[in-house]
Design brief:
The complex is a heterodimer of chains A (163) and B (575).
Chain A lengths: L1 E9 L4 H11 L6 E6 L5 E9 L2 H13 L3 E6 L5 E12 L3 H12 L3 E5 L3 E8 L1 H10 L5 E6 L3 E4 L8
Antiparallel strand pairs in A: 1-3, 1-4, 2-3, 5-7, 5-8, 5-9, 6-7
Chain B lengths: L6 E3 H11 L4 E4 L6 H8 L5 E4 L3 H15 L3 E5 L3 H15 L4 E7 L15 H5 L5 E4 L6 H13 L5 E7 H5 L1 E3 L19 H13 L3 E5 L1 H5 L3 H11 L3 E3 L14 E4 L6 H9 L2 E5 L5 H4 L2 H6 L3 E6 L13 E4 L2 H15 L5 H15 L15 H11 L5 E4 L3 H9 L8 E2 L10 H11 L5 E6 H4 L6 H6 L5 E6 L4 H10 L15 H7 L3 E5 L5 H8 L9 E6 L26
Parallel strand pairs in B: 2-3, 2-4, 4-5, 5-7, 6-7, 9-10, 9-12, 10-11, 12-13, 13-14, 15-16, 15-17, 17-18, 18-20, 19-20
Antiparallel strand pairs in B: 1-8
Helix pairs in contact in B: 1-2, 1-6, 3-4, 3-18, 8-14, 10-14, 11-15, 16-17, 16-23
The chains are: A alpha+beta (163), B alpha/beta (575).
């Protein structure tokens, strides 16, 4: 099953490679991994999307907790949470395509953030599924380039991951 | 503030940190990036620096110093090849959870990343085989980092910690102040076990019909031996031990069934398979211990697992009653509960259980066919046990001789059996013996080895001469990489691919060339006399290299073939 794991870790050089190294050394999957400093600059927040059996997920959580630099780990799937991902898509926008692309972008509540003679760059935020759906709804030939951030997640309501 | 206090170089600060930690020995090898540190060492005499002949041996020696004392082992190596040579040693210590601090030199901060001479990404290379590591980028961080390093290495589940220090940092000046305490918000190892879980565990053990204790290296590392003995005796239950746990419970006690696992005793493996309540103490259900996991689980039993590392619990086998905590503290709580509650045991069932165990015991699975023609390796170990009155520190390398030492030298005390269990590193034996002998200068130290393993760190014969280490090397020389040959005989239809050791040196002359005493023993009738001589007062202060030419075809039994279950052992032909 797909799990989203959030963690807070010391914002130190090499911290990211400790986590990435753990996943590769123990053969765990990483679907995506995002990381950035938090409002407290000594802490980084990381979101890892992974998949595995319940036993594997339990081991992943334990192994992450075992890393000396990791302060707190939360499996977002243990409760209600929100997941968002940002995608930038550069699409062909010539002739009739131009209007079509504008319309698709509106339907998915995206924004055109760069306009050039032959292309648009669309910014789209949502769950991974939504981003997938947008890509699928576009004519493959129209897609020039895509870039995705990987998922970020946060617990709903009172579920707070903080030191 | 800082202007008023005395200024020290980074190297001097580092040395003072080691003084603060009461370090007695630093095992190391100098080089460009650590010259400032060596100069600071030159100016002190609080700890002794031991010059090895290869960095790998420095790590192994420091590791064995720790294994035999419980103190943190310390090693010092230079950058680049110094650090890469240390990797095998570090990985060995990591697999067996040995507390160590390794200091490595690094090229100057301004040269990092420029492919400088003797540069390597030591922090990157060691990351997967250390508990934690640090790169010190500022002289003001040295003291705090060293404090953290010692704390992390020796708390929770212990392990090696590496501190990488660039050369320029060791020359920069700063005041020295060693922190008294260390607080890491991200690292708070659990010590006390959950009392509710402990109660539950005790109830299960008391009510069990076929209880069994399976103890591991955690008992030795956690200095919990005394408590384990009390628990086993209070409940009068059978106990087995992993390779790493030997000595944690006295082997001569009637409740001890011997080692379990791939080369464990028949009774230990059968009891492990057939028990109904299993108490695992500081052990980790390793593949060499429980054999085929599915086969192990095919016989349902309730499993209680005490371990300081939560990630050890339910890693390979689902645990019914997990108790996360320091083994000593949990066992102490359990003993208090026994004293308070005086649990009623099923004595009738227990008597039946011991009857069954004694039946298994009667197989005498460790008996072997004695020979007047060839020296049996088992016989050498038995005689070693007799001659040393069971009171030696025994280090071993890896292979058949390691298993024979584990099977035929019953250890009654913890920290006496020093070997590489997890990583299975050939070449540890001699440097391990060095580390032990430095820690216990008056003790008998025997290094049981093979002709394959001993040649992997043979250069240390020179170190042994320099420091007059009276180690006795017990070389069980069968002219084969014995364990490889055994597997080839059993599973590869006698195709002995590259397992024959040709062109062996004359070990007697080799020992003599290094200034030691060499002996060659070919006849079974000479074994006891030779051992007695080696351990006699006459040679008490000498390093003795004993080359026993042993039966080439001897195999280690019992054996659980790869993929088979605990009760599917191959026994020796004579049984």
């Amino acid at each position: 099953m797909r799990h989203i794991i959030s963690l807070l870790m010391e914002n130190e050089a090499g911290a990211l490679s400790r986590v990435a190294g753990l996943f590769s050394a123990r053969g765990y999957n990483i679907e995506s991994l995002t990381v950035a400093a938090t409002e407290d600059p000594t802490l980084s927040r990381m979101t890892i999307v992974t998949s595995g059996s319940e036993a594997v997920i339990e081991q992943i959580i334990k192994q992450l907790n075992k890393l000396i630099d990791v302060v707190k780990v939360l499996d977002l799937n243990d409760g209600k949470f929100i997941e968002r991902e940002l995608m930038l898509v550069k699409v062909k926008a010539t002739g009739a395509f131009r209007e079509e692309m504008k319309r698709m972008c509106d339907i998915f509540r995206g924004r055109i953030i760069d306009v050039a003679d032959g292309s648009f760059t669309i910014e789209l935020t949502g769950s991974g599924n939504k981003l997938d759906a947008f890509i699928e709804s576009l004519d493959k030939a129209a897609i020039l380039e895509t870039v995705r951030t990987g998922a970020s997640g946060i617990g709903r309501g009172d579920r707070i991951l903080k030191v | 503030m800082e202007q008023s206090s005395k200024q020290f170089t980074g190297a001097e600060i580092l040395v003072r940190c080691l003084h603060e930690e009461n370090v007695e020995f630093v095992f190391g090898y100098p080089g460009g990036a650590v010259l400032n540190i060596y100069d600071a060492i030159f100016h002190q005499d609080k700890f002794k620096h031991i010059l090895v002949r290869h960095e790998q041996a420095a790590i192994h020696a420091a590791d064995a110093f720790s294994r035999s004392t419980g103190k943190v082992g310390v090693a010092l190596v230079t950058s680049g090849p110094g650090a890469t040579n240390a990797i095998t040693g570090i990985a060995t210590a990591y697999m067996d959870s040995i507390p160590m601090v390794i200091i490595s030199g690094q090229v100057p901060t301004y040269a990092i990343g420029e492919d400088a001479f003797q540069e390597c990404d030591t922090v990157g290379i060691t990351r997967p085989c250390v508990k934690h590591n640090f790169l010190v980028k500022d002289v003001k961080d040295i003291a705090a980092t060293m404090k953290k390093a010692f704390y992390v290495a020796n708390s929770g589940r212990p392990g090696p910690v590496l501190v990488d220090i660039p050369k320029d940092i060791t020359a920069h000046l700063h005041a020295f102040e060693y922190p008294e305490t260390v607080q890491l918000r991200s690292y708070n190892p659990v010590t006390k076990g959950h009392l509710g879980q402990i109660k539950k565990a005790l109830k299960l053990l008391a009510e069990a019909k076929r209880p069994m204790v399976y103890s591991g290296g955690g008992v030795v590392l956690g200095d919990a031996s005394e408590y384990l003995i009390k628990l086993v005796q209070a409940l009068n239950v059978p106990i087995t031990s992993t390779l790493m746990g030997l000595g944690g419970y006295p082997a001569s006690d009637k409740n001890f069934l011997g080692m379990l696992g791939m080369h464990g005793t028949y009774e230990a493996n059968m009891a492990m398979q057939e028990c109904d309540v299993l108490l695992a103490v500081g052990s980790r259900f390793d593949d060499r211990v429980i054999g085929n996991t599915e086969h192990f689980l095919s016989n349902p039993r309730t499993i209680i697992h005490i371990d300081i590392d939560p990630s050890s619990i339910s890693k390979r086998v689902k645990i019914d009653v997990p108790i996360v905590g320091d083994v000593k503290s949990v066992l102490a709580d359990m003993l208090d509960l026994i004293a308070a509650e005086k649990p009623v045991q099923n004595t009738v069932a227990l008597a039946d259980w011991f009857k069954q165990i004694n039946e298994w015991r009667s197989k005498k699975c460790l008996s072997y066919a004695q020979s007047t023609e060839f020296i049996k390796p088992q016989y050498v170990i038995q005689k070693l046990h007799e001659v040393t009155k069971g009171d030696a520190f025994v280090t071993s390398d890896v292979g058949q001789h390691q298993m024979w030492a584990a099977q035929y030298y019953p250890f009654d005390k913890p920290r006496r059996w020093i070997n590489s269990g997890g990583l299975g590193t050939m070449g540890v034996g001699l440097p391990y013996a060095m580390g032990v002998q430095f820690a216990h200068p008056d003790a008998q130290v025997a290094c049981v080895t093979g002709e394959g393993s001993i040649q992997m760190n043979i250069q240390e014969l020179s170190t042994c001469l320099q420091y007059n280490l009276p180690i006795k090397v017990i070389l069980l020389n069968n002219r084969y990489l014995g364990m490889v040959r055994q597997w080839q005989e059993f599973f590869y239809e006698n195709r002995y691919a590259e397992s024959y050791m040709e062109s062996l040196p004359d070990f007697v002359k080799l020992a003599e060339a290094y200034g030691h005493v060499g002996m060659r023993i070919e006849n079974p009738s000479d074994v006891e006399g030779a051992l007695a001589e080696a351990f006699s007062p006459k040679l008490k202060d000498r390093f003795v290299f004993m080359n026993f030419l042993t039966d080439q075809k001897e195999n280690v039994f019992p054996m659980i073939p790869g993929g088979k279950g605990l009760s599917e052992m191959i026994l020796a032909e004579n049984l």
